[in-house]
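Chain A, query sequence.
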Amino acid sequence: MLALSRKKGDSIIVNDDIEIVIIDIGKEQVKIGIKAPKNIPIYRKEVFEQIKNENKQAILDVNIKDLKKLFDI
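Chain A, predicted structure.
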């Protein structure tokens, strides 16, 4: 992990096309803005983990018989 110190208004560039901007610094939180191409999805970690878990569950819930029926196999 890379740890950096930044002040309000400062930025960090990732991979030439993603900019992370420090918008505000409060007592208990830091507000950040992320500028990235529209084709790059950006999620909060807890949302990303939920999506991954739901995708895994969806795979487990697939009924092979229904899938074969769908594709006329």
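The chain has two domains: 1-38, 43-73. The longest strand covers residues 18-25.
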